[in-house]
Design goal:
Keywords: Coiled coil. It comes from Metabacillus mangrovi. This is RsfA family transcriptional regulator. The protein has 249 residues and is mainly alpha-helical. It folds into two domains: 130 residues, no CATH class; 86 residues. Helix content is 57%, strand content 3%. The protein has a two-stranded antiparallel ribbon with strand order 1-2. A hairpin with a 5-residue loop joins strand 1 and strand 2. Helix 1 runs antiparallel to helix 2, helix 1 runs parallel beside helix 4 and helix 2 packs across helix 3.
Length: 249
């Protein structure tokens, strides 16, 4: 079962390009080339096709056009101007006949060296003679240079940078102000907590004094009751004239 690898290396891309261009030049299909590369690199043909169309093809556009011209030239030479059917240069191992198709040896990606594909033009097409000894890899289009910065772009960048710096300074000042307010509130909260603690302590003292006072009052009330019980009632007697006199005890 084919397993997808993590990333494509430069050797993989070069092998894919060489194989596709060879199939196109010989009159085969790109799908057949994708199958061949997929078997060599242990990838699916769909993954090879996606890699070719998304990345590699843009780098070998000139080489692809040249391969198509070579295919047309070969068809004219062999088919006498009649359109020929495309032939498949590669067959997967499960469908290949051992007597007809020679099994290709696997390609070692680490030691793979691209072959130099030399175009040999027919006598009636001398315009391709100057391409002898030139490989398709040499037709790879160079990467586009990075665009140069204009003065307006530099000024806009500096203005944006200054605006961001000003905004950052304002945020720092606001942060300092909020920290000061937070410290002030923390101090006020601490003072209030001390006052509350003192009030609670005073409340406990008042409660203790109140309880002591109530005990004293209760004791005084009991003593008063005891004194009243100990007192005896006064005795009176009537004299000759009918007046009441207190009898001394």
């Amino acid at each position: 079962m084919k397993q997808r690898q993590d990333a494509w290396s430069e050797e993989n891309d070069l092998l894919l390009a060489e194989t596709v261009l060879r199939h196109v030049r010989e009159g085969s299909t790109q799908l057949n080339a994708f199958e061949e590369v997929g078997d060599k690199l242990n990838r699916t043909s769909a993954a090879c096709g996606f890699r070719w169309n998304a990345v590699v093809r843009h780098q070998y556009e000139k080489a692809l056009q040249l391969a198509k011209k070579q295919r047309k030239q070969k068809m004219r030479a062999t088919g006498k101007g009649q359109p020929a059917k495309k032939k498949l240069l590669y067959a997967p191992p499960e469908t290949a006949a051992p007597q007809q198709i020679k099994e290709e040896e696997p390609v070692d990606v680490q030691t793979y060296e691209p072959a130099i594909m030399v175009y040999s033009a027919p006598e009636e097409q001398p315009e391709f003679d100057d391409l002898e000894g030139v490989s398709y890899s040499s037709l790879k289009q160079p990467a586009a240079p990075a665009p140069e910065l204009t003065m307006d772009q530099i000024i806009a960048f500096l203005e944006t940078y200054e605006s961001r710096a000003t905004h950052s300074t304002a945020l720092k000042q606001e942060n300092i102000r909020l920290k000061r307010e937070l410290d002030d509130l923390a101090r006020r909260n601490e003072d209030l907590e001390l006052k509350i603690a003192k009030m609670e302590e005073d409340s406990d003292t008042i409660q203790e004094d109140y309880e002591t006072l109530m005990k004293i009052m209760n004791r005084a009330r009991k003593l008063t009751l005891f004194d009243e019980e100990d007192r005896t009632s006064p005795k009176f007697k009537m004299d000759r004239n009918g007046n009441l006199e207190k009898v001394a005890e």
